[in-house]
Amino acid sequence: MYRFVYSLLFYLAVPFILFKLLWRSLKAPAYRRRWAERFALASMPEGFDTSKQTIWIHAVSVGETVASVPLVRQLRQAYPSTQIMITTMTPTGSDRVAALFGDSVYHQYIPYDLPAAIGRFIDALRPVMLILMETELWPNIIHHCHRQGVRIVLGNARLSARSASAYRKISRLSKPMLSEIDCIAAQSQADARRFIELGASPEAVEVTGSLKFNVEIDASGLPPGSIFESLKESGRTVLIAASTRDSEEGKVLAAFAQCLQSDASMLLLLVPRHPERFDNVVNLCQQKGFTVVRRSQLKSIQASVQDTTQIVVGDSMGEMQSYYRCADIAFVGGSLVDTGCQNVLEPAALGIPVVVGPSQYNFASICSQLEEAGALRTVADETELARLLTELNSNKAEQERMGAAGKQLVQANQDALPAMMKIVRRAIG
Question: Global pTM?
Answer without folding.
Answer: 0.79
